[in-house]
Amino acid sequence: MLYYDIVVIGGGPAGLAAAIEARKNGVKKILIIERDRELGGILQQCIHNGFGLHIFKEELTGPEYAERFIKELITMGIEYKLDTMALEVSDNKVITAMNSTDGILHIQAKAIILAMGCRERTRGAIRIPGTRPAGVLTAGTAQRFVNMEGYMVGKRIVILGSGDIGLIMARRLTLEGADVLAVAELMPYSGGLTRNIVQCLEDYNIPLYLNHTVVNIEGHDRVEAVTIAQVDNKLKSIKGTEKRFECDTLLLSVGLIPENELSKSAGIELDNVTGGPIVNESMETSVEGIFACGNAVHVHDLVDWVTEESKRAGSGAAKYIQGQIESDCKSIKLKGINGVRYVVPHQIRLDNIEQPVELMMRVDNIYKDIKLIIKMNGEVIKEVKRSHVAPGEMESIKLDLSKFTPGDSDGIFIEIVKEEV
Amino acid sequence: MYDITVIGAGVTGTFIARELSKYQLSVLLIDKENDVANGTTKANSAIVHAGFDATEGTLKAKLNVRGNELYEEICKELHVPFKRIGSLVIAFDKQEMETVHELFERGTKNGVPQMELLDKESVLKLENNLSEEIIGALYAKTAGIVGPWELAIALAENALENGVELLLNSPVTEIKKIVGGYCIAAGDRKIECKMIINCAGIHSDDINNLVNSASFEILPNRGEYNLFDKSVGNIVNTIVFRCPSEAGKGVVVMPTVHGNLLIGPTSEYVDSKASFDTTLEGLTSINEHTQHMLKQLSLQSVITSFTGLRAKTRTQDFIIEESKESLGFFNVAGIDSPGLTSAPAIAEYVIELVKRRIENIEIKHDFNPYRRPNIQFMELPDIEKAKLIEKDPSFGRIICRCEHITEGEIVDVIKRKAGARTLDGVKRRARPGSGRCQGGFCAPRVMEILAREQEIDITEVVKCGLDSYILTGKTK
User: Fold this and answer.
1) Nearest CA in chain A to B458
2) Are B408 and B287 contained in the same domain?
3) What's the gap in Å between the CA of B182 and the closest CA on chain A?
4) Which among A129, A177, A261 has CB closest to B283?
5) Given a cut of 60, is residue B278 above it in pLDDT?
6) Count of domains in chain A?
7) Rounded to two decimals, what is the model's pTM?
8) Mind listing the pLDDT tens digit for each residue in B12-28?
9) What does the alpha-carbon distance between residue A243 and residue B274 come to, in Å, rounded to a whole number?
10) Residue A273 maps to which CATH number?
11) What gap in Å lies between CA A239 and CA A218, rounded to an integer?
């Protein structure tokens, strides 16, 4: 059995920031377990720029952004194991892991930080009819092939889903000489950032078909054609609106799912909406001493916010093992209602917060000229105006709770209210 | 000149090839695809039926019950996953219950052991996730589930270990009668042999017609399925059939040998033998039927859907006979359900036909019925795991994150006889890519290993079929 103060599972942006922050808070023995061959996670295949605008106030590429953290981590002497798979996490904080040099590892940690990231939703999960040829792959897998392995995945490409990775890949594949024929999006709005719609599709004249989905895939060995069709307001395809594209590739960018198999093995309670663990102000999960952050908790669209959130997990875990966290104190639940799908954190223990608290949330549709209203004890305690909110863009609000006493409140509620003109 | 050529390396062809390898015969097994088990064997319900479906007196009835009996031992010899979990045929009303009674009687006539008629309470005790609206069921304890492609792959490997030769990528385009036998044009090869056993599945009529008149026709019939994540794999413990009625033809809900949940199939005659597509209508229909059978089923956990083609004939029975026009040419055709179950018995039956043509067929005394099991690293105790990693560090490297499959296991299935050559070939043997992410993370790594082990360029690695290339070249 190995012993560590904190074991961080995942060496992507979340795990790196959490480990560094824990060290800055005085924790000595920290270990990062990373299943890939290098640190940095998905950032290593994101060679486009736009990372770090909030944190570093400059535009970095994914690998550049990762490199800043990796350098700091190495300077601090934080230990990490690459090519190592965490197989199980128990609720008494023993991690079973494996690699080819150490064999099977059992590690007892005082605190664990889960930072496994997310995976892509696949073809099966969205049930596209048709054949099952080669040439149907997720945008992230294509990104790995193109940017890390140096291989092209197709010549004539249709993309289903307008998530950020799909949009980025539309541009990337065009620059590599492929014809991106269309991006089809099931919803009436894109799931990606507005800046990506402009810079990756509009700038390259790639048509975006909103309210469309793929209704057929043809080709026995390799994709030969893809048919898309318009959908009605129940998301059912409308006969007669089909458009057939002869192509050799269908990329899927149809959503990301937090990876929480390890969380489940530890018995951690998950949120049905986010797919990630239910967390408190310190990013602690329902199992004491196990923290979580980044895309394993909820899917972010900017890495800067993953970093911010993970720092909270890192300092939370540090305080936990230093006995500075108050677990028996007044706690208040947070809930998104009326257009707000979820809020992270899910609860706040008032004695543990440094004001103000950063609340992150997603809305369920596109809204214009609205207010996000935060209510407690039936009273509005904060409201912020937004001219435009969209499901693809995470909203964040800083909330100072020091002036309020929660009383017997049944929670803090956040909702969308139409602004009266 | 080979003694026998077996055309078609599905579960029927590989069973027959392995059966033939028990004798002093030179046998060639050929297939048009780049792997064994690439046709209907890879897309079916994976059920070893008890045997109450087929009409008494038919070949299907006879070979089903016999095949079922043979499964245990063969799967033990070859280390193929097989579980005798039993099956239920559930009825929702009186009329369906009558059918259930008929099936019970037919089963009794066919010689099916261990059947029982259950009332609602007993059914729900067995399967508490079934709909409360059911009124009873037929319970057949001898039904089981198997890994069909694992079985065919294991049979091919064992046959090869016992001297059978395998020729892949070789579609048969011509068969000529020559003195003492036949000359087959397959791919770029000409093969001479004394006898031919035609196990070409949905193409068995085409093969027959190369040398004989068209005595039968294969009518391809499409079956569509949905496969669910392991998280819902235990929603049923047995194979649960909906009683065949006008509302639907025997949709099934069942666990797979790997712990996933499988639902399907549809049944629809199609014009083309290339109709391997799933349809919105088909998948919706099986979803609705299944949701009716269960208290609850969330479609969110579907991980993939697939289509298989049944090789149906007008007679609805197996055609297993020597051609009347060509001595030594045996058709093994029309092997639709219960073909998988019957396959071991079909092999026995075919050997008897062959024996009539070859006098004094000699037994191979050094026939080895056993096959080294696939390494299932995660099933080993920790001490064994550690030892194996020390001996071969590639067992410490997990390639498939969802199913926890190591590099060592992948290399093993590539290096075996009748080993994996394609991405899907690796997936079928060692299961990387069959989990939640469906190969999103591991496909690039598996391709790397396939390229390295076969000493080919990574761009030459294909998914499944000959032309199923994955990469189109280098980036700029």
Assistant:
1) A151
2) no
3) 32
4) A129
5) yes
6) 3
7) 0.91
8) 999 999 999 999 999 99
9) 23
10) 3.50.50.60
11) 18
